[in-house]
């Protein structure tokens, strides 16, 4: 596998930056074709390393330079004695000089696609890369569907065809790759949303370029993974005490939703908060204390008790199970008016959408895509079409830090490079999982982390705990409570876990 110079391991780029990097690389090599030659050769080496036994290779080539990479790979496979066929749509002969040159150098068979693909051991997807620009037409869709229906595994070159490499969305059909080998730099859109069901295992071929080709080009986003946790989670000072580890106040738990605030409080304790208080409905206090005697629970009908609890808190999480009735609205307004480090989730976000209050400085909001859509006045599908843009729009509109949850959680704040979490799994799509995240982030805030770092580290810690819990017993049936021991584990120990690059 090809790992050369990686300028900054978590750096993610968009296609506009990649075009500039490619241009700088072509200038420094003095020849654009050299880049394509290296791309095709790296991909061939990867294919050989992963599927050494593959004898029959089908390379599906598009009309652009991604197709050009495919012809270079096909030529290597041919020279290595493999049975190779390039398949392309009628009319998809290479259009540009680079790809045409690569196609002319390939001496093997080229067949036009008609309904089905030949039998083979591996399919190489070289249909579209970063030049993919619109939903596929019927003929292209039929080809993509034939690739996906074929039993052979797929190696995608640069981008699984049909995935938008900037936004992570799939406007029509997209190739389901077993692996994707990215060229030159990692792409932001392959780390979030619908893309995650298409990329398979991601690897990076940097094409032996020097770091100078990245000069003056800032990454669009940063990928964060469990190995990054020690960046934020230094060991505790030996002489710390419960006060120095922060007091969290969790507000919520309307009638019928008492479990939400209990999960939030428990997660805050398991993420290292020194003290956790809960302001909830009276009838939830006894069950909460019987499960979680370390918490201090208050009935908040008494205005003085609420005032004192708000005053004592180092960080406040408001929203889990809060409801949107008068009780919840009153608590929401008091929490927002408190000017304390604040986290808003669930019903606090629904209330924010209908009663926009100016949030205190450095507040964190943790919407799922549905909540994000309500806050932005758009549809959930529009949020998912461009999760980076939605997170950025929320951070601007509400002047806060945003954790846009879901596959490939995006953390955004004004003047910060957005971060995308390379952990988490669909087992976490279950009621109560977001309440756990609220407790984690509030605990990190109370321990002194700034809002953007607490949001990033908290989303990562939560996702890592979710992955560990899913690894133990599977994704289906995973419960938010299953994360609790793992939150403690990842908040303390060397969190390195071998993982595929995402
Ligand atoms: N430049 C370099 O130095 C290097 C580049 N490299 C490689 O080049 C790739 C980028 O190449 P690229 O820019 O030619 O775009 P590419 O992804 O092949 O697609 C464009 C073609 O597809 C077409 N098309 C798009 N969408 C479509 C749709 N839905 N349905 C149908 N057609 C559609 C589009 O048509 P048009 O929109 O122009 O009508 C155009 O013809 C990059 O990912 C990497 O693999 C490496 O070799 C390293 C060096
Ligand atoms: N498919 C998925 N992949 C990764 N993480 C997921 C996935 N589905 C849900 N999650 C995570 O689980 C949590 C669910 O939160 P949320 O939807 O607010 O649940 P609830 O409101 O029921 O507590 C979020 O942190 C989200 O990122
Ligand atoms: K491709």
How does this structure look, described?
- With 502 residues, this protein is of the alpha/beta class.
- It folds into two domains: 11-219, Rossmann fold (3-Layer(aba) Sandwich); 227-231 and 246-492, UDP-N-acetylmuramoyl-L-alanine:D-glutamate ligase.
- The chain is built from 16 helices and 18 strands.
- The chain has helices at 15-29, 32-50, 65-79, 97-105, 138-149, 258-270, 285-291, 303-312, 326-337, 347-354, 369-376, 380-385, 387-398, 433-446, 451-473, 484-492, and strands at residues 11-12, 56-61, 83-88, 109-112, 122-126, 154-157, 179-183, 201-205, 221-224, 247-251, 275-280, 296-299, 315-318, 342-344, 364-365, 401-404, 410-412, 419-421.
- The strands form two sheets. An eleven-stranded mixed beta sheet has the order 1-9-18-17-16-15-14-13-10-11-12, sandwiched between helices.
- Helix 1 crosses helix 2 (32-50) and helix 14 crosses helix 15 (451-473).
- The protein is elongated and about 85 Å long.
- The protein binds ligand NPW, adenosine-5'-diphosphate and potassium ion (K).
- Adenosine-5'-diphosphate binds next to helix 14.
- (6S)-NADPHX binds at residues 65-69, 129-135, 158, 260, 321, 368, 435.
- Residues 18-215 form the YjeF N-terminal domain.
- Pfam families: Carb_kinase, YjeF_N.
- It comes from Lysobacter stagni.
